[in-house]
Amino acid sequence: xxxxxxxxxxxxxxxxxxxxxxxxxxxxxxxxxxxxxxxxxxxxxxxxxxxxxxxxxxxxxxxxxxxxxxxxxxxxxxxxxxxxxxxxxxxxxxxxxxxxxxxxxxxxxxxxxxxxxxxxxxxxxxxxxxxxxxxxxxxxxxxxxxxxxxxxxxxxxxxxxxxxxxxxxxxxxxxxxxxxxxxxxxxxxxxxxxxxxxxxxxxxxxxxxxxxxxxxxxxxxxxxxxxxxxxxxxxxxxxxxxxxxxxxxxxxxxxxxxxxxxxxxxxxxxxxxxxxxxxxxxxxxxxxxxxxxx
Length: 294
What we know:
single chain, alpha+beta, Aminoglycoside 3'-phosphotransferase, Chain: A, domain 2, globular
Protein backbone atom coordinates (compact mmCIF):
# COMPACT_ATOMS: atom_id res chain seq x y z
CA UNK A 1 0.00 0.00 0.00
CA UNK A 2 1.36 3.41 -0.95
CA UNK A 3 2.05 6.00 1.74
CA UNK A 4 -0.58 8.40 0.37
CA UNK A 5 -3.27 5.74 0.68
CA UNK A 6 -2.15 4.83 4.20
CA UNK A 7 -2.37 8.49 5.22
CA UNK A 8 -5.76 8.88 3.59
CA UNK A 9 -7.04 5.88 5.56
CA UNK A 10 -5.90 7.66 8.74
CA UNK A 11 -7.61 10.90 7.75
CA UNK A 12 -4.31 12.61 6.94
CA UNK A 13 -3.14 14.56 3.89
CA UNK A 14 0.56 14.74 3.05
CA UNK A 15 2.09 18.13 2.38
CA UNK A 16 5.72 17.06 2.05
CA UNK A 17 8.14 14.14 2.43
CA UNK A 18 11.73 13.89 3.61
CA UNK A 19 13.75 10.67 3.48
CA UNK A 20 16.18 10.02 6.35
CA UNK A 21 17.84 6.62 6.23
CA UNK A 22 15.15 3.94 6.47
CA UNK A 23 12.42 6.34 7.60
CA UNK A 24 10.28 8.91 5.83
CA UNK A 25 9.33 12.10 7.67
CA UNK A 26 5.93 13.29 6.50
CA UNK A 27 4.45 16.77 6.93
CA UNK A 28 0.66 16.48 7.04
CA UNK A 29 -2.39 18.63 7.65
CA UNK A 30 -2.22 17.40 11.28
CA UNK A 31 1.48 17.67 12.11
CA UNK A 32 4.50 15.46 11.36
CA UNK A 33 4.63 11.66 11.27
CA UNK A 34 7.25 8.98 10.71
CA UNK A 35 6.77 6.13 8.23
CA UNK A 36 8.95 3.02 8.18
CA UNK A 37 8.67 -0.34 6.44
CA UNK A 38 8.63 -3.42 8.68
CA UNK A 39 6.22 -5.38 10.85
CA UNK A 40 6.20 -5.07 14.64
CA UNK A 41 5.70 -7.91 17.13
CA UNK A 42 2.26 -7.28 18.67
CA UNK A 43 2.93 -9.61 21.61
CA UNK A 44 6.02 -7.59 22.55
CA UNK A 45 4.19 -4.26 22.29
CA UNK A 46 1.23 -5.50 24.32
CA UNK A 47 3.54 -6.89 26.98
CA UNK A 48 5.41 -3.58 27.23
CA UNK A 49 2.10 -1.75 27.65
CA UNK A 50 1.03 -4.19 30.37
CA UNK A 51 4.30 -3.49 32.21
CA UNK A 52 3.72 0.29 31.98
CA UNK A 53 6.74 0.87 29.76
CA UNK A 54 5.53 4.03 28.05
CA UNK A 55 8.77 5.27 26.49
CA UNK A 56 7.84 4.46 22.89
CA UNK A 57 6.25 6.44 20.06
CA UNK A 58 2.50 6.13 19.51
CA UNK A 59 1.85 3.64 16.71
CA UNK A 60 -1.03 4.50 14.36
CA UNK A 61 -0.90 1.28 12.35
CA UNK A 62 -2.71 -1.95 13.16
CA UNK A 63 -0.85 -5.02 14.43
CA UNK A 64 -1.19 -6.94 11.15
CA UNK A 65 0.18 -4.18 8.91
CA UNK A 66 3.70 -4.47 7.50
CA UNK A 67 4.69 -0.88 8.20
CA UNK A 68 5.03 1.53 11.12
CA UNK A 69 3.38 4.94 11.28
CA UNK A 70 4.19 6.94 14.41
CA UNK A 71 3.97 10.46 15.71
CA UNK A 72 7.04 12.61 15.08
CA UNK A 73 9.17 13.29 18.18
CA UNK A 74 11.43 16.34 18.26
CA UNK A 75 14.86 15.31 19.58
CA UNK A 76 16.51 17.72 21.99
CA UNK A 77 20.08 18.78 21.30
CA UNK A 78 22.05 17.44 24.26
CA UNK A 79 25.69 16.26 24.53
CA UNK A 80 26.14 12.71 23.30
CA UNK A 81 28.00 11.80 26.52
CA UNK A 82 24.83 12.60 28.48
CA UNK A 83 22.62 10.95 25.89
CA UNK A 84 24.38 7.58 26.11
CA UNK A 85 23.91 7.57 29.90
CA UNK A 86 20.22 8.41 29.55
CA UNK A 87 19.90 5.65 26.94
CA UNK A 88 21.49 3.00 29.16
CA UNK A 89 19.31 4.05 32.12
CA UNK A 90 16.19 3.63 30.00
CA UNK A 91 17.47 0.26 28.79
CA UNK A 92 17.97 -0.85 32.40
CA UNK A 93 14.40 0.28 33.17
CA UNK A 94 13.12 -1.71 30.17
CA UNK A 95 14.89 -4.83 31.42
CA UNK A 96 13.79 -4.27 35.01
CA UNK A 97 10.12 -3.86 34.08
CA UNK A 98 10.06 -6.94 31.83
CA UNK A 99 12.16 -9.39 33.87
CA UNK A 100 10.69 -12.86 34.22
CA UNK A 101 12.12 -16.26 35.05
CA UNK A 102 11.78 -19.55 33.25
CA UNK A 103 13.27 -23.00 33.29
CA UNK A 104 16.60 -22.81 31.57
CA UNK A 105 16.55 -23.85 27.92
CA UNK A 106 19.75 -25.82 27.50
CA UNK A 107 19.21 -26.04 23.74
CA UNK A 108 19.15 -22.23 23.58
CA UNK A 109 22.48 -21.98 25.42
CA UNK A 110 24.00 -24.88 23.49
CA UNK A 111 23.20 -22.97 20.32
CA UNK A 112 24.89 -19.83 21.72
CA UNK A 113 27.94 -21.89 22.76
CA UNK A 114 28.23 -23.69 19.43
CA UNK A 115 27.84 -20.48 17.42
CA UNK A 116 30.49 -18.66 19.47
CA UNK A 117 32.87 -21.62 19.48
CA UNK A 118 32.48 -22.13 15.73
CA UNK A 119 33.11 -18.43 15.16
CA UNK A 120 36.31 -18.51 17.22
CA UNK A 121 37.54 -21.57 15.34
CA UNK A 122 36.75 -19.86 12.05
CA UNK A 123 38.58 -16.67 13.11
CA UNK A 124 41.68 -18.64 14.10
CA UNK A 125 41.80 -20.47 10.75
CA UNK A 126 40.98 -17.30 8.81
CA UNK A 127 43.74 -15.21 10.40
CA UNK A 128 46.25 -18.06 10.25
CA UNK A 129 45.68 -18.45 6.52
CA UNK A 130 45.74 -14.69 6.02
CA UNK A 131 48.96 -14.05 7.94
CA UNK A 132 50.64 -17.01 6.23
CA UNK A 133 49.83 -15.47 2.87
CA UNK A 134 50.98 -11.99 3.96
CA UNK A 135 54.31 -13.29 5.28
CA UNK A 136 55.15 -14.80 1.88
CA UNK A 137 55.23 -11.33 0.33
CA UNK A 138 58.51 -9.52 -0.18
CA UNK A 139 56.81 -6.15 0.38
CA UNK A 140 53.77 -5.83 2.62
CA UNK A 141 51.23 -3.10 2.09
CA UNK A 142 50.71 -0.71 5.05
CA UNK A 143 47.52 -2.50 6.05
CA UNK A 144 49.14 -5.92 5.81
CA UNK A 145 52.05 -4.75 7.93
CA UNK A 146 49.62 -3.29 10.49
CA UNK A 147 47.79 -6.61 10.73
CA UNK A 148 51.03 -8.62 10.93
CA UNK A 149 52.33 -6.39 13.71
CA UNK A 150 49.15 -6.99 15.75
CA UNK A 151 48.39 -10.62 14.90
CA UNK A 152 49.53 -11.82 18.35
CA UNK A 153 46.87 -9.62 19.96
CA UNK A 154 44.23 -11.29 17.79
CA UNK A 155 45.44 -14.79 18.68
CA UNK A 156 45.55 -13.86 22.38
CA UNK A 157 41.95 -12.58 22.21
CA UNK A 158 40.79 -15.81 20.54
CA UNK A 159 42.59 -17.95 23.13
CA UNK A 160 41.28 -15.92 26.07
CA UNK A 161 37.78 -16.05 24.66
CA UNK A 162 37.82 -19.82 24.15
CA UNK A 163 38.94 -20.35 27.76
CA UNK A 164 36.19 -18.10 29.10
CA UNK A 165 33.60 -19.63 26.79
CA UNK A 166 34.33 -23.19 27.93
CA UNK A 167 34.13 -22.19 31.61
CA UNK A 168 30.88 -20.32 31.05
CA UNK A 169 29.43 -23.30 29.15
CA UNK A 170 30.29 -25.71 31.97
CA UNK A 171 28.73 -23.45 34.56
CA UNK A 172 25.56 -22.60 32.63
CA UNK A 173 24.70 -26.30 32.30
CA UNK A 174 24.34 -26.49 36.09
CA UNK A 175 21.70 -23.75 36.23
CA UNK A 176 17.98 -24.48 36.48
CA UNK A 177 16.42 -21.05 35.89
CA UNK A 178 17.30 -18.02 33.83
CA UNK A 179 16.24 -14.40 33.51
CA UNK A 180 14.57 -13.20 30.37
CA UNK A 181 13.67 -9.64 29.42
CA UNK A 182 12.28 -7.75 26.46
CA UNK A 183 15.22 -6.74 24.26
CA UNK A 184 15.04 -3.66 22.09
CA UNK A 185 17.33 -5.52 19.69
CA UNK A 186 19.15 -2.61 18.03
CA UNK A 187 20.41 -0.15 20.64
CA UNK A 188 22.27 2.90 19.38
CA UNK A 189 22.06 6.65 19.83
CA UNK A 190 20.08 7.05 16.60
CA UNK A 191 17.28 5.00 18.17
CA UNK A 192 17.01 7.11 21.31
CA UNK A 193 15.27 10.48 21.52
CA UNK A 194 15.19 13.04 24.31
CA UNK A 195 11.97 15.04 24.39
CA UNK A 196 9.38 15.67 27.11
CA UNK A 197 10.32 12.13 28.19
CA UNK A 198 13.01 9.79 26.79
CA UNK A 199 11.92 7.53 23.93
CA UNK A 200 13.25 4.34 22.37
CA UNK A 201 12.30 4.09 18.70
CA UNK A 202 12.73 1.44 15.98
CA UNK A 203 11.24 -1.62 17.71
CA UNK A 204 11.10 -3.97 14.69
CA UNK A 205 13.93 -6.16 16.08
CA UNK A 206 12.48 -6.44 19.59
CA UNK A 207 12.32 -9.91 21.13
CA UNK A 208 12.61 -11.74 24.45
CA UNK A 209 16.06 -12.93 25.54
CA UNK A 210 19.09 -12.53 27.77
CA UNK A 211 19.60 -8.86 28.79
CA UNK A 212 23.27 -8.82 27.78
CA UNK A 213 22.39 -8.88 24.09
CA UNK A 214 21.08 -5.32 24.24
CA UNK A 215 24.29 -4.14 25.93
CA UNK A 216 26.38 -6.12 23.44
CA UNK A 217 24.60 -4.43 20.53
CA UNK A 218 25.19 -1.01 22.07
CA UNK A 219 28.88 -1.89 22.54
CA UNK A 220 29.16 -2.99 18.93
CA UNK A 221 27.74 0.33 17.77
CA UNK A 222 29.61 2.67 20.14
CA UNK A 223 32.59 0.88 21.73
CA UNK A 224 35.07 3.51 20.59
CA UNK A 225 32.81 6.48 21.25
CA UNK A 226 32.37 6.34 25.05
CA UNK A 227 33.80 5.17 28.34
CA UNK A 228 31.82 1.94 28.65
CA UNK A 229 32.83 1.27 32.22
CA UNK A 230 30.80 4.35 33.15
CA UNK A 231 27.96 3.20 30.89
CA UNK A 232 27.85 -0.25 32.52
CA UNK A 233 28.01 1.27 35.99
CA UNK A 234 24.97 3.43 35.21
CA UNK A 235 23.10 0.37 33.93
CA UNK A 236 23.88 -1.65 37.05
CA UNK A 237 22.67 1.10 39.36
CA UNK A 238 19.22 0.12 38.13
CA UNK A 239 19.61 -3.48 36.97
CA UNK A 240 22.38 -5.76 38.22
CA UNK A 241 23.68 -8.42 35.87
CA UNK A 242 24.34 -11.84 37.33
CA UNK A 243 27.86 -13.31 37.16
CA UNK A 244 26.82 -15.63 34.32
CA UNK A 245 25.29 -12.75 32.38
CA UNK A 246 28.40 -10.59 32.83
CA UNK A 247 30.62 -13.43 31.68
CA UNK A 248 28.53 -13.95 28.55
CA UNK A 249 28.75 -10.21 27.84
CA UNK A 250 32.54 -10.27 28.22
CA UNK A 251 32.77 -13.29 25.91
CA UNK A 252 30.68 -11.54 23.28
CA UNK A 253 32.64 -8.29 23.28
CA UNK A 254 36.03 -10.08 23.41
CA UNK A 255 35.51 -11.60 19.96
CA UNK A 256 37.89 -10.08 17.40
CA UNK A 257 36.36 -8.62 14.28
CA UNK A 258 36.80 -10.02 10.80
CA UNK A 259 39.11 -8.00 8.57
CA UNK A 260 39.17 -8.46 4.83
CA UNK A 261 41.19 -6.54 2.28
CA UNK A 262 38.43 -5.76 -0.20
CA UNK A 263 38.39 -2.01 0.45
CA UNK A 264 40.85 0.75 -0.41
CA UNK A 265 44.23 0.68 1.33
CA UNK A 266 43.25 3.69 3.42
CA UNK A 267 39.98 2.01 4.51
CA UNK A 268 41.77 -1.28 5.25
CA UNK A 269 44.18 0.54 7.57
CA UNK A 270 41.30 2.32 9.26
CA UNK A 271 39.36 -0.93 9.80
CA UNK A 272 42.36 -2.73 11.29
CA UNK A 273 43.21 0.23 13.53
CA UNK A 274 39.63 0.41 14.81
CA UNK A 275 39.56 -3.32 15.52
CA UNK A 276 42.84 -3.17 17.45
CA UNK A 277 41.67 -0.08 19.37
CA UNK A 278 38.44 -1.87 20.25
CA UNK A 279 40.33 -4.96 21.43
CA UNK A 280 42.55 -2.78 23.64
CA UNK A 281 39.56 -0.95 25.07
CA UNK A 282 37.73 -4.23 25.70
CA UNK A 283 40.73 -5.62 27.59
CA UNK A 284 40.83 -2.51 29.76
CA UNK A 285 37.13 -2.98 30.49
CA UNK A 286 37.30 -6.71 31.27
CA UNK A 287 40.71 -7.46 32.76
CA UNK A 288 40.15 -5.56 36.04
CA UNK A 289 37.00 -7.65 36.50
CA UNK A 290 38.93 -10.79 35.75
CA UNK A 291 41.62 -10.02 38.35
CA UNK A 292 38.95 -9.38 40.99
CA UNK A 293 37.31 -12.73 40.31
CA UNK A 294 40.48 -14.86 40.35
